[in-house]
Specification:
The protein is mostly helical. It has 17 helices and no strands. It starts with 5 loop residues before the first helix and ends with a helix.
Length: 325
C-alpha cells in the first residue's frame, strides 16, 4: 500500500498550529450506554451491514479478541494524538510517521474484524473501529465509513469523520460530510472532525491529477464553517478552501485576512488566497506584508510569490509595480 509521508498528508498549518487539528477522537471518551454487549449481538446501524449468521465470523490473525483489538486501536490512536500534539521538528515528524505506519499495518492485519466491529459492534467499538479504518489508508473502507456517518450515536459519527480525515480519499463526497456536520444533534466534536475531514479531502483532491476537485459541495461545506467562533475551525476551513481553489470564497477569505483577530486564521486566509491564485487578491496580500504577526506576513509573501511567479521580498513597495501591471 502506497502512503504519502505524514508531512505531506497533514493539512496546511498542522506543523505550526495544532489548533487546526481535531482536539480528540470522540469515541475514545465515549462510553456505551449500559454494559457492553457481546460482539455480534448488537444490531446493525445500516442496511449494508452483514448478518453475522450468514457467514462464519472472521477470526483475528493474532488470536486476539475483538475487545482486545479495540483496546489496542485506542492505544495506537492516543499515542498518535499525543505525538502529533508535540511534533515540531523533522525528527518528531518522522517518529510520528513511524507510529502511523505501524498502526496502519496493525489495522490491515486485523482488517476483517475491524471492518465487522465498525458495522455491527456496540457504539464504542463502532467508533474506534471507524477511526482505525481511516488510519489503514485502504480506500476500500470508504463505503463503511460513509455508512457510519449515518450512525444514530454522535460519538460514532465524530470518530468516523476523524477516520475520513485520516483516510483523505479524494472520492469522499462533500455532501456526505455536510450532512454529518449539519445534523441536528451535531456536537462540537463532529464539527471539528468534520472540518478536518473536509480540508484533508480537499488537499487530497489537489494532488489528484486525474480528476482534481469535484463539484459536490465540499467547498460550500468549508465556506459555511468560516463563520464559526472557534479559531481552529475557521483556520482549517480557510486552508481547505485554498486546497479546493474555491474562488467562491474569495470575499470571505479576504475579509478574514483583513479583519480576523486571530493570526492563525489570517495566516490560513493568506495561504488560501495564494492557492486560489486570483490576481484580485494581490492588493490585500501586499497589505498583509505589514501584518504584526511574522507568520501572517510570511504567508502573504508566499502567496504573492505563487500569484506572480517570483518573490520580491517582504517590502510592500517592491510589490506595487506588480499591482499596476
Amino acid at each position: 500500500m502506497s502512503r504519502a509521508p505524514v508531512s505531506e498528508r497533514l493539512p496546511f498549518l498542522a506543523l505550526l498550529l495544532t489548533t487546526t487539528l481535531p482536539l480528540s477522537c470522540g469515541g475514545l471518551e465515549h462510553e456505551a450506554e449500559g454494559p457492553p454487549a457481546a460482539f455480534g449481538e448488537t444490531k446493525s446501524t445500516g442496511g449494508s451491514a452483514p448478518n453475522p449468521g450468514d457467514t462464519a465470523a472472521p477470526e483475528s490473525n493474532s488470536g486476539k479478541t475483538v475487545a482486545e483489538i479495540i483496546v489496542d486501536c485506542e492505544r495506537h490512536i492516543s499515542a498518535w494524538q499525543f505525538a502529533r500534539a508535540s511534533a515540531n521538528s523533522q525528527r518528531e515528524l518522522e517518529q510520528l510517521q513511524v507510529l502511523e505506519e505501524a498502526f496502519a499495518r496493525y489495522v490491515t492485519n486485523e482488517m476483517d474484524l475491524v471492518r465487522e466491529a465498525a458495522l455491527i459492534g456496540e457504539a464504542r467499538a463502532r467508533g474506534v473501529s471507524s477511526t482505525a479504518l481511516g488510519f489503514s489508508g485502504d480506500p476500500s473502507v470508504l463505503p463503511i465509513l460513509l455508512n457510519n456517518l449515518g450512525d444514530p450515536d454522535p460519538g460514532v459519527v465524530a470518530n468516523t469523520l476523524y477516520g475520513l480525515g485520516m483516510l483523505a480519499a479524494p472520492e469522499t463526497p462533500g455532501g456526505s460530510l455536510n450532512d454529518a456536520i449539519q445534523r441536528p444533534d451535531a456536537t462540537l466534536e463532529i464539527v471539528q472532525n468534520g472540518v478536518f475531514a473536509a480540508a484533508r479531502v480537499a488537499q487530497a483532491r489537489s494532488r489528484d491529477e486525474e480528476r482534481g476537485q469535484r463539484s459536490d459541495g465540499l467547498a460550500e461545506v468549508l465556506t459555511h464553517l468560516l463563520d464559526r467562533p472557534e479559531v481552529g475551525i475557521r483556520a482549517q476551513a480557510a486552508s481547505g478552501l485554498g486546497y479546493a481553489q474555491a474562488a467562491i470564497a474569495l470575499p470571505q477569505l479576504t475579509n478574514l485576512l483583513i479583519g480576523d483577530a486571530e493570526s492563525a486564521v489570517r495566516m490560513a486566509a493568506a495561504f488560501a488566497l495564494g492557492e486560489i491564485g486570483d490576481s484580485i487578491s494581490g492588493s490585500v496580500l501586499v497589505s498583509a506584508l505589514d501584518d504584526p504577526t511574522p507568520g501572517v506576513a510570511g504567508a502573504a509573501r508566499g502567496a504573492l510569490a505563487k500569484l506572480y511567479g517570483r518573490d520580491l521580498g517582504p517590502d510592500p513597495k517592491a510589490w506595487e509595480p506588480q499591482l499596476r501591471d
